[in-house]
Every structure is written in structure tokens, then in C-alpha cells.
Amino acid sequence: MGKNLLSVFALGGLNEVGKNMYAIEYGEDIILIDCGNKFPDESLLGIDLIIPDITYLEENKDRVQALLVTHGHEDHIGGIPFLLKKINVPVYATRFTLGIIENKLKEHRILRESDLNEIKASSTINVGEVEISFFKVNHSIPDCLGIVFSTPEGNVVHTGDFKFDLTPATDERPDLHKMAEIGNRGVLLLLSESTNAERAGFTPSEKMVGENLENIFRRAKQKVIVSTFASNISRVQQVVHASEKTNRKLALLGRSMVTVVKIAMDRGYLTVPKGMLIEAREINDYDPDRVTILCTGSQGEALAALSRLSTGNYRDAEILPEDTVILAAGPIPGNEKSVSTIVDNLFQLGAHVIYGSGSSSGMHVSGHGYQEDLKLMLTLMKPKYFIPIHGEYRMLHHHRLLAESVGVEPGNTFILKNGDVVDIEDSQARSTRSIPVGSTYVDGVDVGDMEFVLRDRKKLSEDGMLMIILPVNKTESTLMSDPEVISRGFVDKNFSDLRKGMNRIIVSTLEELREANRNSWNVKKKQVKKLVGQYIKDKTRKEPMIIPILIEI
Amino acid sequence: MGKNLLSVFALGGLNEVGKNMYAIEYGEDIILIDCGNKFPDESLLGIDLIIPDITYLEENKDRVQALLVTHGHEDHIGGIPFLLKKINVPVYATRFTLGIIENKLKEHRILRESDLNEIKASSTINVGEVEISFFKVNHSIPDCLGIVFSTPEGNVVHTGDFKFDLTPATDERPDLHKMAEIGNRGVLLLLSESTNAERAGFTPSEKMVGENLENIFRRAKQKVIVSTFASNISRVQQVVHASEKTNRKLALLGRSMVTVVKIAMDRGYLTVPKGMLIEAREINDYDPDRVTILCTGSQGEALAALSRLSTGNYRDAEILPEDTVILAAGPIPGNEKSVSTIVDNLFQLGAHVIYGSGSSSGMHVSGHGYQEDLKLMLTLMKPKYFIPIHGEYRMLHHHRLLAESVGVEPGNTFILKNGDVVDIEDSQARSTRSIPVGSTYVDGVDVGDMEFVLRDRKKLSEDGMLMIILPVNKTESTLMSDPEVISRGFVDKNFSDLRKGMNRIIVSTLEELREANRNSWNVKKKQVKKLVGQYIKDKTRKEPMIIPILIEI
Known about the structure:
Oligomer: homodimer
Largest interface: A-B, 57 and 57 residues
Strand content of chain A: 15-25%
């Protein structure tokens, strides 16, 4: 057995929450774990999606052997269509995860040519000298896996996203015994997720949400509207149970809710009593106290069902006084404001609204392990080396402290950036090199480097723009008539004075350049842009984008 | 004594957190309470500030008799310069609040002509038949007042911002006895602030922060950097105490920190031992364990001291490994992300960082009373009528429930919108009319209605723009040469194909219009805009702003 270099790195997921993508290389083989997306914040004006930069993989296309998918959340699968369009690598995932991926590939019209393979927690896959096996973890979506890579150099474990919920709502218990065995066989390197590394204690159990839901359902005198992530099938199952116990029909609102619930039912991850599901248009056929509505939009998304219900813009359903609305999902950081607006609107409709951040409302628990969950994983795995993954720097930092508190040697934890490589040879790990990685922006149907476009959009969005059209004599470079100024996103109460001032500056600038015999269009444009910009800034304290357009006549 | 109508309304502060401004009218007299600003969220592209819409006051200029200011926070004073430029009304405020206002008016160059009057909690002011008196409350800035309006119709009480801190860090105890007396004399209508109406319990005391600060200071082996609101003089005082006990010099970083601390020291609200304060440039003259830095930027503001320290961009000071950084202020909703980025950067510099939301880090307590504080105020005042103020709808809603729980009669609470008027006659209150109010945006030096400008900026920021320059024959309306297309903030990998497509559309559009004898410029522009826009949307799924420019030659 020839000895090869074992290398591990991230193409996304470090110093960020989102677009998770990790890679294991042994010798010539590259094995990928997950390929997620991330949603842009407000600074990325008009960008729809951010996906991992796969330049390195494209350059090493023939070496990429497999994509293993730990679970079906967007931040782990959202980049797959874009990856497969470039590199048609075999994909391995569990039955439920595959359902979500198939739906996504169908939308991108590449389902047919994709090589999808269903695996179970008990499967093994061989890629060159690497044997890949799996273990069950639980999280906030069904059918989640951790992964073990058995290499000649030693074993590498990737946890996927996880918590230890010993009383989950569905039969999705974490396989503690298998994890213990893996730890006993010896783990050279552990990659473990860090989302909640800042939070003390154990993650509360999903069971708690079920009990609280049932209490609310029993007290509700009219309709109950529950909003949660469509993929959180345990939570959906508990809403089904509560509806069953209180004799309510269940209507699903929102495209992703309908799609994911269908996948979950078809594939046996969700049990709904016969006759319970009704169409949205049938809601008004039943007494309000016989109806539950389950809908998307718990993050305040403007076009999702809950937002539209809260403003009375949903055709088939409306929220009336004394209805009960439950936000059964905490707001993701950055979404607090839009969620609050919806809560305000719901109160104004006279609804009882049950909401709150994190688990404070009793209607949400995190799918990511808190500090004690993370310590339990570290203790079960007893790794020699440790790479905290899946989180912002402060989360990775806290996760390192947790690892050291349960016995990982100081100096054996690697806090990496995307692209930083950990190489392992003769059981010694070091991180001295990195591969270049960035972010890839998706804007409409375009994928690519958008930096300069974004710079323009930002400038336009702050102070608008002024176009200055200069009709110039072709031979003598003199102005044929007054410049025409067109503004968008810029306004000033003294605009006519400004216009005169600009005209003055433009005329004298062009005159000076002509006299100095500097007749290049570029020089003229640059000079007009600079001086007009300076003038506008002095007069208005604003800096619109100035676009001079010379028209030769 | 002739009987007049008593009316109360808000010009800002309802269904929002910010730009507080309330008005009491008795007969012909209008008395104003506070005039704050609000910072825009990301949807208001390029807007610097939002202030109350004072159209109604301008229309009734001669009736406006006084502006009473409860305390010196921006959301209560930030609009004052803009108000005074329009209506030079006498301003009444306490000594510390006046210090902050004076500084602001100086920046706007209207200090000299302003009519500022210092009041104390024991002062009384008479405006027509209304006698105005005050009572001390505590909050997170010195010298805060509640206000009592004694009118022939009955007494109206406005609480200002408050909590009941019985062990404040400075001598700023709430005057419970005076409040009890006011309640005993009878309160017809109470206006009370609602910021924390959603939170159970009592607000923790500022004392707790002091004890925690001191513990951290004692354990710190290198520099201690504390970031908080400059106006939170109690917190500043506690940092001074902790520095004194651990033999540290104190440097102030950030313009507002230097300004406000100076005001507080000059006016006797802050005691700093002689020789403790050092200049920023002297920081490196002392051993790191002998230095405290107090700085602005606790909300993640990009240009403030903490942000610049966290990226190594502050000339006089730098953060080194083992330094301790304390974020002694919770992030205001909406600022979580920028604060997190700073925390990440500080960890990367090797600092110990103490942070957390709300009071979870032990380094911050709210200045706004929780539910039990609010119930205590309601119980002391025993109002017949109640208007919850200062908060989003959900906060006002919860505050109403609290009022009813301590005895305010259902139906006697008015949840208003800005501009809704409560009229009181013969001790009976009703709300049937409103005055028109909006928001006023401040953009650079411009103040006014910016709706259409904002719409343009939003569109430009999302998909950028395409300018299409059409050189047209003056007489025959035919194209003289190919259209020129200029794009900003818009990109597409097939741009040259798009250009060809657009040319085709433009040429045929102009041709058709010419044949149909429709030669108006407006029709041409409109048609080109529509068809090119449609074409671009089909091809790219993007909707840049299309600006056709016809140049007659």
C-alpha cells in the first residue's frame, strides 16, 4: 500500500454561516462533502445567491470522485446544480436528502443527466484507498449523516450538522453506539460543526416544542396558523399531531411547504392521518376552530405565505381576530427586523401571536448542538487533530476552547480560512499552504465575478447619478449646444442653479482643454467628471455617479 | 375659567422606535415634547436621517409655545435643529440635556439665535392655562424627566424614557414619592414608554454592570478596552471607578465620547480623578496593564473607534493579544451583524472579548423598564386614560395588556398611530380624527419628500442600468448610426449578443413608429424602453433601469 498525502480543506463554510463545502484529498482522489449556498446581505445589492468558488475543482476535474451530502438544507445543497453543470460528479445522499436534491435539479433542468446514488447510514463507499462509512446524527431535517473516511493514514470524521436530541419528535435518534465505536477505533482528525459553540448547556429537545404546541392548540378558539421551515419535518409532524388531537384539518400554504411535505410523505418521513390535509381554497368550508394552517415565511420573507397573510394579501386565507399565529422558528441573524414587522401586522389584525427569539417562546429549538453537545461529540470521537467548521470566527474560536477543555492538545486545533489546507503525513498534521478560493455570485442567470458591478450598484444606490450629454463638434471639439443633464436617484431643491453651475464648468473645461490642444475623448470625459463631481459635492454634500457622454456631431 | 379642548397626539414615536415627538394642545396653545431622529434601515438607500414631519406645526406656527425635552438621546433631540430652523420655539431642558443640545445646535450653526432655558425637576412653567411640572426618572443618560401637564380639564403625565433603578451607579434615583403624590392628585391621561413591554420581570440594576466590570478589570493582564454609548454616563462612571481601583489611566477614543464626557465633567455629572485621563497618543507611554481605553462604536458603526481598532486602523492605539475588550452595550435590533463582525476581528487579534446580546454578558442593562417597571409606573399614576407611546405596535399592544392587568379599564387605552388625536372634553376621551403626518428624510443637506428618488435608487441598486443613446435625424426620425449602449451596475456574459439584440429591436421599433407617423419623442422613448426592457428581462432575468436618450442631429 503506497503512502499518499492526506489533505483536508474547505471551499466554503469557514468564517461564515452558509455555503458549506469541504474536501478530502488522498493521493490523486478528491472527495467532496456538501455544496451549499448562502443568501447575500444588503451590501451585495441585487445578488440572488452566493455559492462556493470551484475554480480549484475545475482545474482538477478528473480527480473529483464523489460528492457526499450530509443533509438537505440549502446551506449544504444549494450550490449542487451549479457544481454539476461544471463537473458531473456522482452524488451520494440519503433518501430524503436525495428527494430535495432531485427537486432542485429538476428546476435547473439537469436531473436526467445527474448521477444520484441513494445511501443509508449502514452503506460503505470505496474511493481509491479510502473507505467511506456513515453514522446517524440528528438535526432539524430528516435523514442526516456524519461521515467517516478510513484512509491508510488514519480516520477522518466529518460530523455534518448535529445535536444530540435523545427524545426527538420522529424516530431520528443519534447513533451514539456507532459513534463510540468510531472513537474507539481511533480518530486522527475530526471536523465538527460550530454554529452554537457560543451557547452554554445542551440544546433543548424537540419534544419540548411538541408539548408547548399542543397546549396552545388546546386553548385556541379559532384558526391556528403555524409558520416554520418546510424542511423541519419533525416540527411539521408535531403540528400534525397537535391538529389530530384537537380535531383540526390541515392546509399547507407556500410552495416549498407543499413540495417538501410531499417529498416527506412519499418517502415515509412524515405520517399524516387520511383526510386531514385540505386545499387552501377549502379553508373557509370549515369552522375556524377546526382548521390549522401550516405556512412558510417564518423568516419574514416578503413574498412568502406568512408575510402575505399578515398584510391580507393571500387569496385563499385570511387572519381574523382571535386567530392564533405561532412562529415556530427563531429568526436567523439579520432577519429580526422583517420578522418583527410581520408580528406587528399580525397583532394589528387582532391575532394572538406567539413569537420570540431562540427558544424563548418555547416554540423553537435549535437544530445545532450547544456547548455540551459539542463536548459530547469531541469526547466520543477523541480526535488527535481537530478542525472546527461551519461558523464565523468567534464560533470556531469557542469551539477550539471546548475541544481543549475535553482533552484535545493545545496546538492540535486548526482554525482555518476557506482554502487553507491541512496536510497529514506520518500522522503529523500541518497547515502551511492554501488554494485560492473566493465567492461566486449568482445574479439572475449569470454566475461570476461581480465586484465592479456591485461597486457601481452601491454608488448608484447611495446618491444616484447624473448623466451629462455633451454634443460636440467633430472637428473643433467645441460644444454645439448646452449640455443636457439627466438625473436618476439624485435630487436637489436648487437643481436649476446646479444645472447652470455645471454648464459653466463644462464649457470652461472643454475650452481650456481645446486651448491646451488636449483633444482626446478620454481626457475630456475624465476632466468633466472630476470637476462636475467636485462641484456637486461642494454644493450638496452628495456624490452621485457622474457619467459624461460625448456625442460627436 | 373658559373650558377648552384638550388634545394629545404624536408626530413620531408610534409604531416605530425613534424620532419621538409628542404634542399637547389646550385651547390655542401647542406644547411639544421631544423632537428626535431615527436612523434609516437599508431600504432607505443613501438617506442619512429621518426626522418628524412638522407640516402641521408650520401651519400653526404661532400657536407653538414650548418644546420640552425629557432627555438627551438622539431619538429625542436629533430633530431639534431642523425644527428650530423652521419654528424658533423656546426649548426647556435640564442642564445635562441642554449641554448635548447646545453642541448639536453649534454644529448646525444656530446656537446663538436659539432660545434655550434650563429647568430642574423642581421647576414649573406656565403656558396659558396649563401648568407644567416635572419629576425625576432614571434611564441610561443623566438628568431625565417625566412631565406633568396640569390643565383645567385634568392632569396629563408623560413619563419620558424610564426604568426604576433603585441602585443606580450615580445619584440619579427615580423620585418615587413625587410620582406617588402626582398619582394621588389624580391623573386623567398617562403617556408611558413601551420599549421593553415584551420583557418579563424588572430591568436589572446598573450596579450589576459595575460589579461585573470590576471583576473583569481585576483579572485583565493587559489593556482593557470598553466600548459603550458615550451618553451612558453611569456606565462611563463605573469604568472610571474600575480603572481607579486597578490603577489604570483612561484614554477616550471617538469624537462623541470625548465631547459627551467633557460636557458631563464640566456640568458635574461625572467625576474623574485628577491625572487619570490621558491623550490617545500617550497610550503607549504606559504599561498595558495600566491602561483603560473607553471608546465609541459599540453598535458596530463602520467609522467609529472600535471598528477601526478591530481592523488595526486606529493611529494612536492598537489591540494586542491578551488585551480584554468589553462590549458594554447590547446591539440595537438591526446592528447584530456588524457587531458580530467586529467581535470576529477582535478574536482574530487574540483579544479576550466579552460580548452578548441584552444583559446576557453581564456588561449591559437596558435603560428602559421591563414589564414590572411599567406596571409600577401605571400603579403609581393610576390614570383614567392611557396611551402607550415609544414603540412598535407589538410593544404598544403588550403595554395595553399590562395597563389592564393593573386596573386601567378596558376601552380606556388608546393605541394610536402618529397623527391620531385623542380629544378630551368633560373628562371623556375619544379618538376620532387625525392630522396628516409622514416622515421627513434628510439626504446630505436636503430635507424633503424623497419617495421617487428612493424608488430610482432601489431600482439602480438591484439590477443597475442601461443607457441607450439614439442619434436620430432631426427631420426624418431615422437612426443616423448604431445606438450606443452604456451600462452601469449591470453585466452579462453575453453582452455583445445582447447589444446586437437591442440594436435590432431599436431599429425596428423606430421604423414602425415612423411608418405609423408617431414621431413624438415621448412615444419613441417609451416604446424603446418597454421593448428593450422586456427583451433584457427575457434573456437575463434581470430588470435594469432602461434610459433611452434621443439625440437629434
